[in-house]
Write a structure and sequence with these properties.
244 residues, alpha/beta, Rossmann fold, 3-stranded parallel beta sheet, 46% helix
Length: 244
């Protein structure tokens, strides 16, 4: 397996060198037409297993232990490099688990927080692959979209983080989400059967310190857990999708 990974690394290295040559040869083209602002997404998976779980700080050492996290931290470092080397205005956010009614749950680590709503509107018991009390940082879709537009609209002199900004929305456990839903569906029931995803989530932050985003471009989340629950159920009731 070493050989394919070496090829991937070498391909990225060659691509980066070629891109650097293009920047040197045609700087006015990039900085007059393609410059402006560029954005890359990043996740909280860039942190390693030893990260402080509560209020994970912006500048804590990033030591991911998954291929996904390693590839994303590479993107953050490339963004910083091209800003420092060529003043390319690249901006980035470390997104949380994004929850919305726009798509069906696909089995991802935070998708339980979508699936539980679908089960509630169909009066079905929900089987959760986490334990009741494991908290994760989550953000509602509308807040995630607004955060993206706000960082892109911020004056360049306000942007002090050139890797990727921590972002915070809300943090809650499956039990807290189940109680929020019971305000509307009192008879809804959640059964906890942790699987391998429990171990993955146990190494993730429980909450995020996003003070740099708040200070630099005035970020502030709008939705809390009960706001999200009301909207999710209202919309899913109207859509009334088939049972999952």
């Amino acid at each position: 397996m070493i050989y394919p990974f070496f090829l991937i690394f070498w391909s990225v290295h060659i691509w980066a060198k070629q891109l650097s040559l293009v920047f040197r040869q045609f700087p006015s083209f990039f900085f007059e037409s393609a410059y402006r602002i560029r954005s890359i997404p990043s996740p909280i998976a860039v942190y390693g297993d030893d990260v402080p779980k509560i209020k994970t700080p912006q500048d804590y050492a990033r030591a991911p232990t998954t291929v996904y996290g390693i590839s994303k931290i590479a993107g953050e470092n490339w963004a910083q490099y091209y800003f420092q080397k060529y003043e390319l205005d690249v901006r980035s956010i470390r997104y949380l688990g994004v929850i919305g009614y726009q798509s069906l749950p696909g089995g991802g680590t935070t998708d339980y927080a979508v699936d539980i709503y679908h089960k509630a509107i169909h009066n079905q018991n929900f089987e959760c692959f986490f334990s009741a009390n494991i908290a994760l940082p989550i953000i509602y879709m509308d807040d995630a979209i607004r955060a993206t537009t706000e960082i892109m609209d911020a004056p360049v002199e306000n942007i002090t983080i050139r890797t990727s900004y921590n972002l915070s929305g809300m943090s809650f456990s499956p039990e807290e989400l189940a109680k929020s839903i019971q305000n509307i569906y009192p008879n809804s029931r959640t059964i906890y059967k942790p699987d391998f995803r429990q171990d993955i989530a146990a190494n993730w932050p429980s909450s995020i310190d996003d003070s740099f985003a708040r200070n630099d471009w005035n970020w502030k989340p709008t939705y809390d857990i009960d706001d999200m629950t009301i909207i999710m159920i209202q919309v899913l009731r109207k859509k009334k999708l088939p049972e999952l």
